[in-house]
From TrEMBL:
<keyword id="KW-0234">DNA repair</keyword>
<dbReference type="GO" id="GO:0004844">
    <property type="term" value="F:uracil DNA N-glycosylase activity"/>
</dbReference>
<dbReference type="InterPro" id="IPR036895">
    <property type="entry name" value="Uracil-DNA_glycosylase-like_sf"/>
</dbReference>
<feature type="compositionally biased region" description="Basic and acidic residues">
    <location>
        <begin position="19"/>
        <end position="30"/>
    </location>
</feature>
<dbReference type="GO" id="GO:0008263">
    <property type="term" value="F:pyrimidine-specific mismatch base pair DNA N-glycosylase activity"/>
</dbReference>
<feature type="compositionally biased region" description="Polar residues">
    <location>
        <begin position="1"/>
        <end position="12"/>
    </location>
</feature>
<dbReference type="InterPro" id="IPR005122">
    <property type="entry name" value="Uracil-DNA_glycosylase-like"/>
</dbReference>
<dbReference type="InterPro" id="IPR015637">
    <property type="entry name" value="MUG/TDG"/>
</dbReference>
<feature type="domain" description="Uracil-DNA glycosylase-like">
    <location>
        <begin position="116"/>
        <end position="287"/>
    </location>
</feature>
<feature type="region of interest" description="Disordered">
    <location>
        <begin position="1"/>
        <end position="33"/>
    </location>
</feature>
<feature type="region of interest" description="Disordered">
    <location>
        <begin position="63"/>
        <end position="112"/>
    </location>
</feature>
<keyword id="KW-0378">Hydrolase</keyword>
<feature type="compositionally biased region" description="Basic residues">
    <location>
        <begin position="86"/>
        <end position="97"/>
    </location>
</feature>
<dbReference type="GO" id="GO:0006285">
    <property type="term" value="P:base-excision repair, AP site formation"/>
</dbReference>
<feature type="compositionally biased region" description="Low complexity">
    <location>
        <begin position="63"/>
        <end position="85"/>
    </location>
</feature>
<protein>
    <recommendedName>
        <fullName>Uracil-DNA glycosylase-like domain-containing protein</fullName>
    </recommendedName>
</protein>
<dbReference type="Pfam" id="PF03167">
    <property type="entry name" value="UDG"/>
</dbReference>
Amino acid sequence: MIPSDNSTQSSLPDMDDANNNHDDEHDVNRTRSFNGRLGRFLYYTPDTPSTPTTPIPRQIITRSISSSRHSSTTPSTTSSVSSPRPRAKPTKRRRRTHEANAPSTAPIPSRLRDSIPPNLILLLIGVNPGLMTGSTGYAYAHPSNLFWKLLYSSGITTRRHAPSDTYKLPALYSVGNTNIVERPTRDASMLSKAEMDAGVAVLEAKIERQRPEAVGLVGKSIWESIWRVRHGRAIKKDEFRYGWQEECENMGCGDGWSGARVFVATTTSGLAATMSLQEKQEVWNELGEWVQRRREERGFVPGVAVES
């Protein structure tokens, strides 16, 4: 037996009564809600006081600088604040300095004098006076210079002299002193090639006039200047050697005189470190042995002053 509609309605709880309290709150049309049956599925919260909520901090979305630069398509974004663009380091401007080899417009006067009496056994030729030498008037006066040490250790002198004995060397050992350039500088690198080459003719005239048996060049650069003036070109690496040079390279030739033999010695400057002290000593020993032998042959007693 099929129950009537009235019996079905009587067997179910009265939905209208159950939802009376909420009809005003939820504007649900009874016709659309199947006579209020949909009200069973509505969820109602109890009337409790609302609690304040902590505001969620705003998230700033910034565009990534690195990704937008390098991506040719859609730029990527990141939630973190991108680091500031690094500043480029400023480039240091180099100070313009004067050319090191340019001669000074106001040359410093030198108190050093030549000591070249006639007929010396050996005339030593330096590059130019240092500042201390120029101010004192004594050859190779700087304490770091090895000149006086090498003279003694090679046998050219019988004891280690002080620079103040510069002008005693001719009478004591038949050894004189001059330079290719007279202008004092802090070091020889401050001289130009033109200034060095200009001194060659002056040297030749001094040697021709005073006629020493041999000249000892105290430094490779002196021989390079002489070679440049004589041959019109720089000396090649395989052409250079320390020690005695060929007889055709004698200096001061003229008036039937065959000239002075040339011995290229090492520099004695304390600033030059291309050769060890032992290597320098070996070169100077060769010159010292020749000087001692020539003094014996002349009957010259070293260390005893002789009137010129």
